[in-house]
Amino acid sequence: MSGDPGLGWNARLAESWVQAGSPAAHGTPGRVAVIDRGWSTVLRNAHDAAPLRVRNIGADVAVGDWVVVDDNAERVEHIVDRTSAFVRRASHEGDRAEADVLAANVDVVFLVHALTAPPNRGRLERELVLAFDSGADPVVVLTKADVADDAERTRVALAEIALGVPVLVASGVTGDGVADIATLGDGGRTVALLGASGVGKSTLVNALLGSDVMATAGVREGDQRGRHTTVASRLLPLPAGGWLIDTPGFRAVSLWLSGRGIERAFADVFDLMDHCRFRDCKHDREPGCAVRAAIDEGTLDARRLTSLETLVAEEAAVEAEQERRERIADRRRAPRGGVTDDSDIDDVDDDDHDATSGPVDL
Ligand SMILES: Nc1nc2c(ncn2[C@@H]2O[C@H](COP(=O)(O)OP(=O)(O)O)[C@@H](O)[C@H]2O)c(=O)[nH]1
Ligand SMILES: [Mg+2]
Ligand SMILES: [Zn+2]
User: Fold this and answer.
1) Half-sphere CA count of 279, side-chain side, radius 13 A
2) Residue pair 240/233 in contact by the 8 Å Cβ criterion
3) Which of 92, 239, 267, 272 has its CA 20 to 30 A from that of 286?
4) Is 34 a domain residue?
5) Does the reported pTM lie above 0.90?
6) Nearest CA residue ID for atom 6, ligand 1
7) If you measure from the C-alpha of residue 216 to the centroid of ligand 1, how many angstroms do you get, rounded to a whole number?
């Protein structure tokens, strides 16, 4: 037994499914289309007219997950290993630092920017790190081409940051370029969109879906309770094949623990660093610094180094905090002399990262 290819089941998932043990004993995996307060809506096939609605008790489920439900079709019993996951640091107003999975098993993530505003390089750099860390392939989409002054200049400027990642130009209003974006869902792939609010994500989603599924800013101006306002992520079928995970407008996206995302998003700078004379070069004023030399020659924009340093510091802070939380959890599990040492548990909920994590609207 395996999942329905029409729902996006693929060879990578099949492999992790087999590695998970006795697949037959687990039943057939379905895909989570919607999550609503501890309940998952699970599709068993691409045209499932009667999706299951089951509880997520003890299962940390995300939209896009492949899951197996128990025999009574009451709860999620097993989550198939994700091929990719969009993880951000959860909001932390007096809250603990926690990972929040926005979407799972995404093949392609569109990083959406509008051509009407000056290109936001810093935001794109952060989004690229998140995208590379997710395991999905990023594609930059520049919207509002119909009203852009110089789309080509912006495209070139952002392509310099995007390092080999495709940069597409489109208009959700005229539909120009939308077909090229839609083809990225070919073969039953799953796509998702990230971007600041107002860049035109909902308009683009409507153009991709061929219907007004999403409330756009224009609609909501007249009707605050807009008919289709997104409140949670949803998995939606693309008309020409493939699936789209539409995420709600999250306020801020801070980095979670980064794997190789930073190295991939800043491969140009890392390549230079390999050529610095000293292994522990701080790229400040050391002799033989290849990074400084490139900046002086004008082949590397100094802002790239600054952005990289900011993101590395942010990621290091998340990591340090995680380590501290793990130490505290260990101490709680193994109290010495029968007394639990809770002395620094109170300041686990620190908000240090607010200072370093520039908010990114989705
Ligand atoms: N001219 C033009 N306007 C657009 C385009 N896409 C979105 N808009 C407008 O930009 C505003 C924000 O769009 P919306 O899709 O709600 O953005 P979201 O916040 O990213 O979902 C709305 O007023 C849209 O009508 C486009 O391709 N061309
Ligand atoms: Mg929107
Ligand atoms: Zn250096």
Assistant:
1) 0
2) no
3) 267
4) yes
5) no
6) 200
7) 7
